[in-house]
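Board work, copied verbatim: Tetratricopeptide repeat protein 17
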Amino acid sequence: MIRSNVSCRIVTVLAVILEISATKHWYVTENGRIQPQHDSVFDMRRPYDLLGFLEQEKRRETADAIYNKISRKEVSIDNQFVGLSIVDAENSNSDCFSWDKSLADVDVHASIIIDYRLKDGIDQTDYMLYNVVANSKPTVPDCQKTFPLDFSIYTFEHLKAMQNRKNLMQHEELSLMKYLPFNTDLNQFGHQLAYSLSRNNTSWIYLNLASVYWRIRGDAYNALECSRRAIVCASRQYRDIPLLTTAGILHAARYSGEAAIILHAAIDYNPTESHHHLALGHIYTFLGDFDRSAACYDNCLKLAPDTLEAKQMKYAIFCHRFLETSLLLFDQRLRNVLSEIHAYHDWKEEWFKLYEHMLWEQNIKSATREIKLAFAREQNLHLLTINPVERSIHHIDNNIILSYMDLGDRKKIAENMLQNVHVSLHLLKNLQKQVKERSNRITKDIITELNMEYNNLFALPTRSPKYHNVEIKKGNEDFEAEYWPKISDCDSSMLMFGDGKQYLPIYLSPENKGYATHLFVNELIDIEPWKKHPLPWHPPICQSPISFNERYITHLLLDATVQQHSPDISMKPFLHSLVHTADLAEIGQRILTATKAKVAAPWVLSMLASLHWRIVGKPRLALDCLQLALENVPKEFKDVPLVSIASIYHKVGLIDDALRLTDKALQINAVEVCMKI
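↓ predict structure ↓
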């Protein structure tokens, strides 16, 4: 007895330590027989297989754990579906869904100009047109003919749209007719306006009206040409009006980023004009910058609280944001539900693999249909068996039929809802496709683009050349004779070029070719002429070329210019004419800054740098710059670097080479070269 108690205690201790578990498999019948339960998973097909028996126990424990996870996951899915219904109901009750307009229905290209009749300080006589002569030939306003204007610093010539204005396209802005007198005939108005401009070609009001005329006609190029001249002629008090007109043209031509820049300038001139803020809000809305557009509409409403268009646009932006946020949130929640459903199915597949394996190891021959159904009910399979599960059971025994609640339907519902949300988001993205393409154009990217546009603009001359290349007719002077000079003339001459000290330095300025070089080292590097360039100052050293063109710069010239030479002080006025108040060192730094910023044609900046080195007496460094200029200079302007190289040849005493290059320069433009030599 004592021994039996001790044995029981030992077994109990071992069971606790080894975490041994047991399953009710055997039972005692009414007749006192001990036999296994046939509906138990431990009624093994191979009862002698101890390892198989232990593996069956592990499968049973794993299946129970998975079943608990499935039950919790089903509750979670139900709760999330309820949450989706609540969110959908809340969004549907929003006023935005009952509003009859959306952001897509609002015209962000609406034509906006300022009515002169409502502007303080402008008298009626200022915008009254001259009466034309009866039966005169119909004409249209030609602003380019009545008021020539090649370039102006006030007209934003650096903008890409301004450079390409001949190629701009826009729609006919017929809505601008409301700003003209009632029942105005557009053809008669254009004819009368053209006559008025011929009488007063500097009237900014006439020029601005001409721009409006061409906008109504849908001619962006002529409209811009007229508005440019209106900007130049308008006083500071009214310059914002033609600036607004110009911005409207660019916005209609789909250059909205440039239009925003011009409108900001208009606001700087007149910050209390509500039309500017309204137009700027439209532009930012088109660009997809809703934060800035909302701020612009707020400013408009502060200045003119009754502006209905600003109110509608502000509310449209609010609803657009609300709808986008709601759809994105709904999309995320649906994704979470689908993720839960996919996990639910994965666990169920795993559960049924275990279940199938357990049935396979079980003594199936002794199991009846009712016993299997009882086993299924014991495990609450009616809550778990969806279509994939049913197929698994049918694989075991085609006679098994289980009732279930199909959560696959919920999955289809969730996927359909997600598809609908994706369609809505796709519509929003189509509405906002300009956002991704242009979202940064007003900030960092547009600044980079404008820097490139400076380079494109000033790579070409901005005005006509000072000296045109025309044929020089032969005269009757002695030096023009075919055999001049005679040997006797040379013998009597006292000119000596041996040491080069008697030479006069020559420099052809790119300014004479039409380049605004004074802008390159002042306004285009954002430093006014009267201001000092920030320290430190460095000389404009040009990048040393890989090789020199032997036809123009020989090794003999390079060797002759290595040492320090006397400064060409007589050429200082060329540089000081660019920045009158600066000394030579500061001008050198300005040239270096302009070169690094690429504000103009590289060959012109290289010429300015070469001039700096010639003045300080370092022709070898000047040759580096002149070689760079030769590589980039247009063919018609090649005489400019050639004359400078010839002058350096002359300085070091290489007269034949100097004459050879001078002759090449004469072939390009004989007039200017002769004038300088």
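The two ends are 138 Å apart (CA to CA).
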